[in-house]
Hints:
Two copies of one chain form a homodimer.
Chain A: H1 5-8, H2 19-29, E1 35-36, H3 48-59, H4 72-86, E2 95-98, H5 101-112, E3 118-123, H6 129-135, E4 139-144, H7 155-161, E5 165-171, H8 183-195, E6 199-203, E7 228-233, E8 246-249, H9 252-265, H10 271-282, H11 285-306, E9 313-314, E10 322-326, H12 334-345, E11 347-348, E12 350-351, E13 362-366, H13 371-388
Parallel strand pairs in A: 1-11, 3-4, 3-5, 5-6, 6-7
Antiparallel strand pairs in A: 2-8, 7-8, 9-10, 10-13, 12-13
Helix pairs in contact in A: 3-10, 4-10, 11-13, 12-13
Amino acid sequence: MELSSRITNITGGGSDGWGVFYKARRMIDAGINVTELTIGEHDIRTAPDILRAMYDAASGGHTGYAEVPGTASLRRAVAARIAERTGVPTTADNVLITPGGQAALFAAHMAACNPGDTALFVDPYYATYPGTIRGVGAMPKPIVTAPDTNFEPTADAINAAAPGAKSLLINTPNNPTGVVYSDTTLGAIAKTCQDHDLWLISDEVYDTQVWQGTHTSPRALPDMADRTLVVGSMSKSHAMTGSRVGWICGPEAAINHLITLATHTTYGVPGYIQDAAEFALGQGIEVEEAVAAPFRRRRDLTIDALAGQNAVRAVPAQGAMYVMLDIRATGLSGDTFANALLDAEHIAVMPGESFGQAAAGHVRVAMTIDDDAYIAALNRLIQFAQTQIK
Amino acid sequence: MELSSRITNITGGGSDGWGVFYKARRMIDAGINVTELTIGEHDIRTAPDILRAMYDAASGGHTGYAEVPGTASLRRAVAARIAERTGVPTTADNVLITPGGQAALFAAHMAACNPGDTALFVDPYYATYPGTIRGVGAMPKPIVTAPDTNFEPTADAINAAAPGAKSLLINTPNNPTGVVYSDTTLGAIAKTCQDHDLWLISDEVYDTQVWQGTHTSPRALPDMADRTLVVGSMSKSHAMTGSRVGWICGPEAAINHLITLATHTTYGVPGYIQDAAEFALGQGIEVEEAVAAPFRRRRDLTIDALAGQNAVRAVPAQGAMYVMLDIRATGLSGDTFANALLDAEHIAVMPGESFGQAAAGHVRVAMTIDDDAYIAALNRLIQFAQTQIK
């Protein structure tokens, strides 16, 4: 039986660049002790008090169909948080609760793009971006960045890509690069969206993980609130990755249609999970800072470890739970380096090429294991890189 | 900002037929005591032992990203259940766990249909069906049934609709009619799918609620397993509506692509919910029969209450948590009857017209309140109908 070309083409037919990841998994299954620095997931679990709040909500009877747009109180809590942190007037009517950030990314592109439309994204990119765009039947078009601009898109590159496109997807703080977009970059993005009548889809799921500078939500830039769909999530901010709860924040008219879409795609998010999310948000920013603290600490340790050598250079690690390491001094591709490192040192990192062409000659290191093991692995990676220089 | 025509057209632009439902909600908000017989949701909550299993799984650490296809053990449990009940060899590779039955319906149509393809469904229908088809960019085409064939589609009607279509969506036991499709009907459906190379999307979420006859999964018919995508759910069988956990069962090649789609649309289902679902399935069929028992009992009470009068006739209530009542003897439309009943008796039922044109002159009654209140309301409905006959 034939399947739709839309679904069979989601991966674009190419290698997905996750060969090192699966090779590491096979080695682990074979009993080999591999240090895994591949996955964007905390080395802590969801906090017990959040889980207890969830259980109390479920035991209290919140187990039936929840309101499809999200519970009124969680929508209000998310709106209040966004209004407070960005200064943009935001109400519950601007918020749709979604089963995770990925569902929000998909829904936002469903809203912005018809089949055949062109949707822009920035290379390097989070693994699902081009497939999400293909999944809605649109055409993914990368804006390729370069290491010498710290992987931020330039005004020229954005403008060159924009004619005829319907949407632009950005992610700051950025996975995989750890870069936080400057106000200059965000200004250029906003201008292009206005000049070319683009929807801006702004993935801000790492907004609580900023180590240097400040995160600006582009929805707060002049005249951008009406054309921006912000994707948020409890995953990274509250170590709730598995709970699949996130949101889209945007213009009320768009949210109304996105609620209709949700009725026909997901039919809402478990009520007891929404109650747990509301509880977690109510714990205040201190909880978010505590969840982020290990990555901030390891990022500082990374900079210390890289000092005094030239084999490995860090892309400025301004945010998120990753550092992108430039290993071009070794003469190896990211893919070759990552495979060789896995074979020689049993350390798994992601080749830059897993995230598009722009990050070739780099590897992404997830700072998601405890400090001592992390720094030991990083030091071995540096030593390994030094041995590769001819 | 313009939104995609796909998302703005999901509702098809017409009335959604839920006027009575929202009017009842407004009356309740205004303090009026309304008997609500509109919603397909149990009058019990999810069982405490299932919620405890969920909490234990979460507290035990299953709070990170779960495997996108579903946990291996839940996929195996669902496959074993399907194999045992249908006789069709089924493994975990035939199963994708989804965040609820609605997500499964959407994904199945994404897999079967490209934008512009024609997707068949049976009228009367569950409210989201045509919008789900429009949501994937396909064209919904109803197969209109009739009261005198108990709202089962005829071979002629199915064949007439099939040329050029890509998929056929059926639902047995049926919401809204309560009919369980006969083997003759299912045979005609299977033959048409084979003759016209259609995907069969079989929504079987009410498969544990059969009061008369037997439910046959069409995937078990000869040569149908390769072209059938079965939609299942824990919602109705285990009173887990709000937990949003269901599945698609189908050919392994289709499931593999549906896993890729899930990676780009939902990124899986919370692991602790999957563990709770696995626990619930492990409790055996007795638990499912206990959850279904109130509807079986109320269905029998309904037949007793309807005896000895001619104003209201029940469509044979063979399964599911609804009875469809034929009120054409009153000369009123279902919509007029339901509105008048709400005004006069403060009883809310769904007009048949909410579910398409085929069920005009009918109302759907959800048997979802306790027995005494249910029968009292039904008797008042009958008396009201008798007063409407000229």
